[in-house]
Fold each of these.
Amino acid sequence: MSSFHSIGDLSRSYQLRLGQHGLKTRLDRLTEELMTGVKTDIPRALAGDLSGLAHIESRMKILQTFQQNASEGQNRFTTMQSVLERMQSVVDELGPRLLSEPSIASDQDLRNRADNARQDFQSMLTALNTSSGGQYLFSGSKSDSAPIGDLTAMLTYLNAAVAGATTAAGIAGRIDAWFDAAPGSGGFADTFYQGDDSGDTRFLISPDRHINSKLTANSSELRDTLKGMAIITYASEAGAALSTDTLRELFSEAGARLVKATATLTSARSDLGQQQAAITQAQARNAAEITALSLARTNMVGADPYETTTALEETEARIQSLYALTARLSKLNLTDYLS
């Protein structure tokens, strides 16, 4: 004969299960809030007014974008500084030597020096094709392609530009004219330089500040260096075709340009340094505002760890009490109860 369950028995069983479900749901919620530090029901915590929170989160996303731009800019300018530093180390050492050696060195020593300078020039051209983050640093707004070619291509253009010149002054003048030719005149800017100086390379690093470096492989700040290196490299390429007197004079022509280049490279590096300082300042301001906004957001939606822990302990105690009551009524074990 089957046992009889009264309406009271069924109601009590339902109430126990309902209480069990409610406590387990509360336990899960409080556990998540304790782990994340954020209220699980944000609309309820803010009484349905999410406008303030939306404003804070939107502002934080904008600032994080600024920070990413600033970080990319800092990497970019740091790498550019490194390239210019390597160039200047060569120029500072080579320029004075090219001016002094013609009066004391032998013809063979001068030709060896020219050959060594040619290798330095190749390294410079390679350095100017440096890329960072998939962008070429000295290409201006056309950053998806290398700004200049290699030394072989350079010598082809130099030989064409110098053709017909027989004196050191004439050779150096032709090389100067090729480097300084206006766009459209068939000079360096048209034939060897592959970047673009006309586009906009600015990007925002804070709500009220942008950075922009117009320094490219075609910039006047670099052309004195390129001219001096090109002249001495041409001397190396011409070899025995140059008389000793012409070779010595080309050394002096190249040295004069490299000595002048020391000042222009220093100026270029100073401009980059100012941009780097602006980035550092912007990063500090952005970080301070992000911190303030994060605190404001936490005050709005954060779960107080002390209150959450207290509520969690209370919920666990109630679950234990409900289990004890249910076990006495149904003779359950804890494993079955929690399943």
Note: The chain has a mean pLDDT of 84.
Amino acid sequence: MKISLPELKKQVHQMPMDVRWGDMDAMGHVNNAVYFRYMESVRIAWMTAVGAVPQPQGEGPVIANAFCSFLRQIEYPARLLLTLYVSDPGRTTFETWTTIEREDQPGVVFAEGGATVIWVDFPRQKAATLPQWMRDIVAG
């Protein structure tokens, strides 16, 4: 099943990543759980770049859910291009979307997925209002 990225998504980050030998499973392709690590890597790189780093005694982002559609198998060796999009800033959340391509096959999406990010007050263990600076970044 192919998901559709929302029309109002905003591309915010892109990064290359090498498939490691250990990313493969017994069937000789990248293990399905590893795709979530790839999506996490691009999401964390972007969040770090914009200053959205969790502060254990304060507030920060947490993933509320994550999903992935596996469209084509990826095998080692490969160099990937991960593209991150954001959309739909709400009171406490926003959406992230990721596409995974091989650099040697531009425009061919091998997997796509996303995650809902919720802003959390860590000491209280409760959702917090998405800061205006983050809302501005996501809304663009």
Note: The chain is about 20% helix and 40% strand.
